[in-house]
Design brief:
It is a single chain. The chain is built from one helix and five strands; from the N terminus they run βββαββ. It has about 100 residues and is mainly beta. The strands form two sheets. The chain has a three-stranded antiparallel sheet with strand order 3-5-4, with helices on one face. The longest helix has 13 residues.
Length: about 100
């Protein structure tokens, strides 16, 4: 992808220099660089969310403990009323560290 600005951090992979054939007042030179952006941070996170209906507070607390023990950075619930059910539903949100693909 071409951009008018350079990324804040990058690594130069290859460079090339060339000269044009036409005669101008100044030399017609071109320098090109193939760059690769550096990862800004390895501390990337994912926010996951889901709705849970017909569940007790004890079960929600247990799920929260399990998620936290498996590396969740944050877990919280918000009570919501769903359109087609008389059951109290909870929206669960949790933040986990994003794992790199192998």
């Amino acid at each position: 992808m071409t951009s008018h600005t350079l990324p804040s951090t990058f690594t130069i992979k290859k460079t090339g220099i060339g000269a044009g054939k036409r005669a101008y007042e100044r030399p017609s030179l071109l320098r090109a660089m193939l760059i690769e952006t550096d990862p800004i941070s390895t501390n990337k996170v994912c926010k996951l969310e889901t709705n849970i209906d017909d569940s007790t507070g004890e079960v929600l607390g247990h799920v929260m403990e399990l998620l936290m023990s498996h590396g969740a950075k944050d877990v919280h619930y918000i009570p919501v009323m769903m359109k087609r059910t008389d059951l109290l539903t909870y929206s669960m949100y949790y933040v986990m560290k994003k794992k790199e693909k192998n």
